[in-house]
Design goal:
Layout: H1 6-29, H2 37-68, H3 73-98, H4 104-136
Helix pairs in contact: 1-2, 1-4, 2-3, 3-4
């Protein structure tokens, strides 16, 4: 899938995370009394992917934008703070998924918490950064 701008590329990555979370929520709902190995792998893969994405934003994209758009400083601060909150939720999801006899209800609750926080974060990031990235041709 080709994208024509950095804004489109970020939206495509965010949409992939949204699809993966929807798939995991469906898998949990259909899992019965025990989590299957594939569901555990999917959760852990999502956790690692989000960690990598946010690390890339924190170390490359955000410094790039901050150096060119001082007015984005409050946005960058909020996004970094949200990355910390999401990291804590990811750590908790990893812990719950990795536990022996992980209960689908508990995993589902953690995925729900992560989904809610992540969706609000993604929407805010898209609203704030995509117009800047697209206008700059970055």
């Amino acid at each position: 899938m080709g994208t024509t701008s950095m804004g489109e590329a970020i939206k495509a990555v965010h949409d992939a995370f949204r699809r993966e979370l929807a798939l995991i929520r469906r898998e949990i709902a259909e899992s019965g009394p025990r989590l299957g190995a594939q569901l555990r792998i999917n959760c852990l893969t999502l956790c690692q992917g989000l960690h990598n994405h946010h690390t890339g934003e924190d170390t490359a994209l955000f410094p790039f934008l901050a150096g060119r758009y001082e007015e984005l400083a409050p946005v960058m601060d909020r996004l970094r703070e949200e990355h910390g909150k999401i990291a804590a939720l990811l750590d908790e999801l990893r812990r719950v998924v990795a536990a022996d006899g992980a209960e689908p209800g508990l995993v589902q609750a953690e995925v729900g918490r992560l989904s809610d926080e992540l969706e609000a974060h993604l929407v805010y990031e898209e609203e704030q950064l995509i117009p800047v990235l697209d206008a700059a041709g970055a």
